[in-house]
Amino acid sequence: MAKEKILAVLDIGSNSTVLLVAKCHPNGHIEPINEVFAITRLGKGISHTGVLSEEAIKFTLDVSKEMQSIAMNEGAEDLIITATSAVRNAKNKSEFLVKCHQKLNIFPQVLSGKEEARFTYIGATYEVESEDPILTIDIGGGSTEVAFGTKNIMVGAHSMNMGCATLSEMFNIGKGEWIPQRIAAKRFIKKNLFSIVDDVHSWLAGRKPVIIASGGTATTFAALVLKENIYDRKHINSVKVDSKMVAVFARQLSRMSIEERNKVPGMEKERAEILPAGLLILSEFLHFFSFKEISITANGLRYGVMKHCLQKYF
After folding, report:
1. What are the residues whose beta carbons fall under 8 Å from the beta carbon of 227, sequence distance 6 or more?
2. Do 51 and 141 fall within a single domain?
3. Could you report the per-residue pLDDT of 92-112, keeping only the tens digit for each?
């Protein structure tokens, strides 16, 4: 009879690097042992230069090495490393992959946008029990993924090249932006949303899906709603908010200085700079498709990758 295994997934994103170590059971249940999060800003400046900076690469890989050690100390039998938007879009992607292998002795799996959307969908719907239609959104540092279907069948998946870090860089969102900059940012978001509108509307016909938001923007927002400074995934997974609240938070936080934002209960200091941009994307998305409410989950990409990898063990 197959025994449970301890596995680890390390996700190297545009803004953050995150580790999930979990005990995986033959029935597919994933039991978290440890989750480690760090803002590494690998994609900083890439919207202007098209390349990953040497400084960002070094810092990200140093942090990744530390997380690899944590995973091994927790008894992980295998470590899967994924890389997303910043790496897949970088002109010096090959350089990063070689340096990662030199540092960690592992080549990361560079996920395509659709793969990232699919794995995020698998993770975000992991604990969903109903067969209701579902649409997931994950706002990352460099890209935003949208997927839809039901608990067991994903029908469509899309990835858009806009994220909270890149939007913040491009339009100064959350850094004292002027009204013209905010208007330009909204136009940019809508342009991206128009690229998926036909497919989403075609699927939406006659359906009222549950909207699930995952990723750092969503979970930090949930912490603000809860006013909790200590991360608690069970509490995060219980948060439901209406679209008006998202819009209010997006505008209020944008008007604050970074120092003022850091004092808001539940705010992660490392996200204070870019959260207004992430919430602007989320708010515009909900308004664009006339969605009234979202549920937030602490599950997402890493859970989806781990769930997928279980197939070769059990």
Report:
1. 265, 266
2. no
3. 999 999 999 999 999 999 999
